[in-house]
Amino acid sequence: DAKTTQPPSMDCAEGRAANLPCNHSTISGNEYVYWYRQIHSQGPQYIIHGLKNNETNEMASLIITEDRKSSTLILPHATLRDTAVYYCIVWTTDSWGKLQFGAGTQVVVTP
Amino acid sequence: DAMVIQNPRYQVTQFGKPVTLSCSQTLNHNVMYWYQQKSSQAPKLLFHYYDKDFNNEADTPDNFQSRRPNTSFCFLDIRSPGLGDAAMYLCATGEGYETQYFGPGTRLLVL
Questions:
Q1: What does pLDDT average to in each consecutive run of 10 residues of chain B (111 residues)?
Q2: How far apart are CA B56 and CA A111, in angstroms?
Q3: CB of B66 within 8 A of CB of B49?
Q4: What are the tens digits of pLDDT across the range A19-36?
Q5: Minimal Cα–Cα distance from A92 to chain B, Å?
């Protein structure tokens, strides 16, 4: 079973920042927070991941709370092409850990 | 540049007729995964190869098999497809058990 809780859907206006929350209250010390997204009829796309510190790349920023029980993915300037299902996954790379996808958040970016 | 390639993108087969889906990668990753994703559901791991070592998920039906002749290629064989096997099949690769990178998927239709 997925270890994360995400809202089922959210809307965002084009050009605005999209803030996607994720709760992972049972996360272990060696588990990373991973974010993927899946645009309709395409394979999942890796976005970003982090362990403790906030992370930023060309796609997004990841903010992880100090207690690591929740995180927020930030898409700084949402475009229509960001419409997708966003999956927050906790996963350890120390040993075999199944990449378990939950239901995700359906994000719709509107003009 | 395509990194994980799946062919074909769409495959139609007949009930009970064996079918093979293919995946290739240019990343030289040592781990390759196969996922099944049914309509409106999250991807579900079927099995993975760590180098030549095959790792089957406990709930993967015997009808599904896989081959990995070399580092670059991995095949998914469905011996006797049923109507319930219609789905998107996703291939992913990773370096060790690090970040997974997905292909575009093959959508299988069973008539």
A1: 88 96 96 94 93 93 96 97 97 89 96 95
A2: 45
A3: yes
A4: 999 999 999 888 899 999
A5: 8
Contact A49, A34 (CB under 8 A): yes
Say how many C-beta atoms besides its own lie within 10 A of residue A18's C-beta. Answer: 21
**DSSP class per residue in chain B:** --SEEEE-SEEEE-TT--EEEEEEESS--SEEEEEEE-TTS--EEEEEEETTEEEE-TTS-TTEEEE-SSSSEEEEEESS--GGG-EEEEEEEESTTS-EEE---EEEEE-
A98: chain B residues, CB-CB within 8 Å: 45, 57
A7-18 tens-digit pLDDT: 999 999 999 999
Q: How far is CA B44 from its chain centroid? A: 11
A9 close contact with B: CB closer than 8 A: no
* A residues 15-54 closer than 8 Å to B (CB): 34, 36, 41-46, 49
Instruction: Determine the Cα–Cα distance for residues A100 and A3; give it in Å rounded to an integer.
Output: 8
